[in-house]
Amino acid sequence: MLTTLFVGLGYLAGSISTAIIVCRIMGLPDPRSEGSRNPGATNVLRFGGKKAAAITLAGDFLKGLLLVLLARGAGVDDVGLALTGLAAFLGHLYPVFFGFEGGKGVATAFGVILGLSWLTALAVVATWLIMAFTVRISSLSALTAAALAPLYAWLFGLPLIYSAAILIMAILLIWRHRSNIRHLLAGTEDSIGTDRPEG
Question: Using CB atoms within 10 A of its CB, is residue 178 exposed (0-12), middle (13-18) or buried (19+)?
């Protein structure tokens, strides 16, 4: 019963689209109709500026992290923690409050991973930073970090259910970046700091 409760709460919390709410409060266009039309921090940065993007990033990250931490504090077992985090991630991708039109899940996935294993999260963020400073392409950095996250979970000996949840998130995150992958293959993907829509 406790696991079911937190899985439900995780999905509902994940369904709160930080990007859309922040843009409404700050009088900015709906992120689903501007730029890449993705309700996430990278797209908000394009047309809303650093402040709006930072708030969006923090909100998306925290809704993944806090639900896992709350579930852990309530005594939910490993299976329940993994399912709660996965539910929060799915809520972000397919939010019930916003017509199931969600973001790509990078920040929320990272929040979930941090809640499950700080060591794995550290390896993931280090990978993203190294890639970001090297290639200066946000999507490629996220894709690389996502692809390696399940490997890190295995190397650090996480419970199998944690590794499975991280693998599912990685697969879905890569799937949600399929337009970016097409741009990367064509050599037309935006670099960090550019304001041209990624499509």
Answer: exposed
The domain containing residue 166 runs over which residues? 2-186
Encode pLDDT of 10-44 as tens digits.
999 999 999 999 999 999 999 988 888 889 898 89
Please tell me the distance from the alpha carbon of residue 2 to that of residue 162, in angstroms, as a whole number.
18
Total number of domains constituting the chain: 1
* pTM of the shown model: 0.91
- Is residue 63 included in any domain, yes or no? yes
Does a structural domain hold residue 93? yes
3-state SS string for 5-47: HHHHHHHHHHCCCHHHHHHHHCCCCCCCCCCCCCCCHHHHHHH
